[in-house]
């Protein structure tokens, strides 16, 4: 438990200092928050998902969830989740970790042996921080087996794109010759990468929802109408209580997602599916209530509420929306041995 | 940062061995149960089934051995409860005694009360009803008008309780009533351990919207209660009843009330898969897995002796939403007339669930009361 608190406290202090609304605003205009990134790197957070024996922090699931929830709480405009996962996969594959932010993709990419190592060629779309990353980690099938390759920044061209929250989601055109040490058998296949990315988004959504709720509760206490704080009205209290229920569910689902990523193991992909579907559903409800409570001011560009609500609307559809993951879960439940829904539920 | 305390629930091999044992028992016991019998689950009364559970040691599991318990953990007990509910076992007879009356006696009862009653509860032979609601006291529990006056050797009680589930089949009621008018309105309240055969106690049926009889009104006509029927401390009834409600609100019965219908729905979709049906089954899975984790977290905290009133309210509010959504969602995907008479299990489960769903957000604290508790937890009141 001490470890949970230490990482959470460090993250909270650092994010409060560097992940400011100004940094988030600037990031929406394409400015990468270098100071924030350096602070996160120096704290060792990029190595959070790498086991201690491999030189990482080896954090437990609750710490991993806490760290990513907090980064989303502050709308930190950096590829922390992507870099954490990419670093873990590189470590598992035995590829040396480069410095700087990493992009992570599973693309339509071909690996061909060349005298100097491998030629990597292809495309990856909607890649988080594709243009601003220091390198790309790509998972691809080669001769029917999953491979992982580390491509330096000069090995791909980026066409800038943005998600609904103005986070960079770039299309990459990859063409590079990379040394043998930059390619290895991948610890995950395309499917395994997808559910891990979905799990990380679920955790981020939980953190963004916590912020939306906190902003709303604070605003309800400050904003007076009809001679009293609006939080004194039962209608407002009931709406916020309803949002709190969704946030509690999301935080719990985020813990499941972290267990899936950190512990892996049997049913990990099911846990990730549960988390992405449940957090995605909660996201729309919590964002809606937060805006209703905030009234017109929360709908203005100058108000920080948008930093989390726009992310929620973007993130719930990234790496598979609720419909996609619910269908996966339904298929697993219907195929479960014993013909009972219950057996799957108790196993997950 | 808003923080609710939902620690990661533990999972042990002992629990999984117990789960296998319960499943095997239920597979034999419920072989011939129809969906219309399974759907009610913790509303289904079967005294002989409760005795069988008692014989297995699955009632009062967490209590000390000297009172008939087996000193099991809250999470072991949780495994038994959720397996019973998911299978649609008729557990109403002993449910209240096991869930809240027994723990209340353990905490506030005299040694004589515990010795006399707890082993009988654990054996599945002694059933309890809840004496809280009244005609003019529903959500506003402090408005209780039933009154006990101190007299020589005990108390005299007059008043009436309402919505008393299975009062007509219970051996005891834990009566919540006023014993003094001094102080604020949630002061001067006390609890009594009342034998239902006490002279002057009259039970009359109150049928629900489907015509089923489980509710009652219970009248107290100048009933004499000996001094040793007082439960706990006079005037401390409010604190005692709040403690009782934390046990009442957080269990798996707060999100599994529609589970038989979900399970029957999944069988229909399995036989004739559709995209929408499969997605709806998956959504149930996502919600149940999440709620179960929240609810098991609360059990973990109860085990640690914490007071999870706020977290229990969150679980119950979310659980009732899912339970009430269930019939509305499944009927979008399967064309079937809800009917207890229909030969197919889905139509039977739908019939029970549709008609009972309104109660899911009323019993044990209305949605509005729960959200008031949550709002207080958020610092809004």
Biggest chain pair contact, residues each? A-B, 56 and 53 residues
Helix content of chain A: 40-55%
Mean model confidence by pLDDT of chain B = 95
Task: Walk across the major sheet of chain A and give the strand order.
Answer: 1-4-5-8
- Total of helices of chain B: 12
Provide structural commentary.
The complex is a heterodimer of chains A (348) and B (381). Chain A is α+β, with helices and mostly antiparallel strands and 348 residues long. Chain A folds into two domains: 2-185, Butyryl-CoA Dehydrogenase, subunit A, domain 2; 190-347, Butyryl-CoA Dehydrogenase, subunit A, domain 3, CATH 1.20.140. In chain A, 54% of the residues lie in helices and 18% in strands. Chain A has eleven helices and ten strands. Chain A has helices at 2-18, 21-28, 34-42, 61-73, 80-93, 190-222, 234-263, 268-298, 305-315, 322-335, 341-347, and strands at 102-106, 108-114, 117-128, 135-142, 145-152, 156-159, 169-178, 183-185, 224-225, 228-229. Chain A has a four-stranded mixed beta sheet with strand order 1-4-5-8, with helices on one face. Chain A has a four-stranded antiparallel beta sheet with strand order 2-3-7-6, with no helix packed on it. In chain A, strand 4 and strand 5 form a beta hairpin. The longest helix of chain A is centred in the middle third of the chain and has 33 residues, at 190-222. Chain B has three domains: 13-126, Butyryl-Coa Dehydrogenase, subunit A, domain 1 (Orthogonal Bundle), CATH 1.10.540.10; 130-236, Butyryl-CoA Dehydrogenase, subunit A, domain 2 (Beta Barrel); 240-377, Butyryl-CoA Dehydrogenase, subunit A, domain 3, CATH 1.20.140.10. Chain B starts with 12 loop residues before the first helix and ends with a helix. By secondary structure, chain B is α+β, with helices and mostly antiparallel strands. Chain B has a four-stranded mixed beta sheet, covered by helices on one side. A four-stranded antiparallel beta sheet of chain B has the order 2-3-7-6, with no helix packed on it. The relative contact order of chain B is 0.12. In chain B, a hairpin with a 2-residue loop joins strand 2 (147-151) and strand 3 (154-161). Chain B is built from twelve helices and eight strands. Chains A and B meet through helix 4, helix 6, helix 7, helix 8 and helix 10 of A and helix 4, helix 8, helix 9, helix 10 and helix 12 of B.
């Amino acid at each position: 438990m001490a470890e949970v608190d230490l990482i959470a406290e460090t993250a909270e202090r650092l994010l409060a200092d560097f992940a400011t609304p100004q940094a988030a605003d600037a990031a929406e205009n394409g400015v990468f928050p270098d100071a924030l990134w350096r602070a996160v790197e120096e704290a060792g957070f990029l190595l959070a998902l790498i086991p201690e024996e491999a030189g990482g922090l080896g954090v437990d699931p609750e710490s991993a969830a806490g760290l990513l929830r907090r980064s989303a709480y502050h709308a930190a405009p950096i590829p922390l989740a992507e870099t954490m996962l990419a670093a873990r996969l590189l470590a598992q594959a035995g590829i040396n970790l480069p410095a700087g932010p990493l992009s992570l993709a599973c693309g339509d990419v071909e690996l061909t042996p060349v005298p100097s190592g491998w030629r990597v060629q292809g495309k990856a779309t909607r890649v988080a921080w594709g243009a601003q990353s220091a390198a790309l980690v790509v998972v691809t099938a080669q001769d029917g087996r999953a491979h992982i390759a580390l491509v330096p920044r000069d090995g791909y061209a980026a066409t800038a794109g943005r998600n609904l929250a103005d986070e960079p989601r770039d299309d990459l055109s990859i063409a590079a010759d990379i040394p043998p040490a930059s390619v290895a058998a991948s610890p995950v296949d395309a499917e395994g990468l997808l559910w891990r990315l979905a799990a990380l988004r679920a955790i981020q959504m939980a953190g963004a929802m916590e912020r939306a709720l906190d902003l709303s509760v604070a605003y309800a206490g400050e904003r007076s109408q009809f001679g009293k704080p609006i939080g004194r009205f039962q209608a407002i209290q009931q709406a916020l209580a309803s949002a709190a229920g969704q946030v509690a569910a999301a935080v719990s689902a985020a813990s499941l997602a972290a267990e899936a990523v950190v512990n892996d193991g049997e049913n990990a992909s099911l846990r990730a599916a549960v988390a992405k579907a449940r957090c995605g559903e909660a996201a729309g409800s919590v964002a809606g209530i937060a805006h209703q409570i905030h009234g017109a001011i929360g709908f203005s560009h100058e108000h920080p509420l948008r930093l989390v609500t726009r992310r929620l609307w973007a993130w719930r559809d990234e790496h598979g929306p609720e419909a996609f993951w619910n269908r996966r879960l339904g298929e697993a439940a219907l195929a479960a041995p014993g013909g009972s829904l219950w057996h799957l539920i108790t196993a997950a | 940062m808003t923080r609710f305390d939902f620690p990661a629930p533990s999972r042990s091999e002992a629990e999984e061995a117990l789960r296998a044992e319960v499943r095997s028992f239920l597979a034999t016991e419920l072989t011939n149960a129809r969906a219309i019998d399974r759907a009610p689950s913790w509303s289904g009364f079967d005294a002989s089934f409760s005795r069988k559970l008692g014989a297995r040691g699955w009632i009062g599991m967490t209590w000390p051995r000297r009172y008939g318990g087996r000193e099991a953990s809250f999470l072991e007990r949780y495994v038994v409860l959720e397996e019973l509910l998911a299978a649609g076992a008729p557990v109403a007879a002993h449910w209240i005694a096991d869930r809240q009356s027994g723990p209340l006696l353990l905490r506030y009862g005299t040694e004589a009360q515990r010795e006399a009653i707890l082993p009988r509860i654990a054996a599945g032979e002694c059933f309890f009803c809840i004496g809280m609601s009244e005609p003019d006291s529903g959500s506003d529990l402090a408005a209780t008008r039933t009154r006990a006056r101190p007299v020589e050797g005990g108390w005299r009680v007059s008043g009436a309780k309402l919505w008393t589930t299975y009062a007509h089949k219970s051996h005891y009621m834990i009566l919540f009533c006023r014993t003094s008018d001094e102080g604020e309105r949630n002061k001067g309240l006390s609890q009594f351990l009342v034998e239902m055969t006490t002279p002057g106690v009259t039970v009359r049926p109150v049928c629900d919207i489907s015509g089923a009889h489980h509710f009652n009104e219970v009248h107290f006509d100048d009933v004499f209660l000996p001094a040793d029927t007082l439960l706990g401390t006079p005037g401390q009834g409010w604190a005692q009843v709040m403690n009782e409600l934390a046990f009442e609100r957080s269990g798996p019965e707060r999100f599994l009330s529609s589970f038989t219908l979900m399970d029957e729905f999944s069988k229909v979709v399995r036989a004739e898969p559709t995209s929408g049906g499969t997605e709806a089954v998956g959504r149930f899975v996502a919600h149940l897995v999440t709620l179960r984790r929240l609810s098991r977290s609360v059990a973990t905290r109860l085990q640690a002796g914490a007071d999870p009133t706020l977290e229990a309210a969150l679980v119950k509010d979310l659980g009732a939403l899912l339970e009430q959504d269930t019939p509305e969602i499944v009927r979008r995907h399967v064309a079937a007339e809800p009917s207890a008479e229909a030969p197919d299990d889905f139509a039977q489960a739908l019939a029970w669930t549709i008609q009972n769903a309104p109660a899911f957000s009323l019993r044990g604290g209305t949605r509005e009361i729960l959200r008031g508790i949550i709002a207080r937890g958020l610092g809004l009141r």
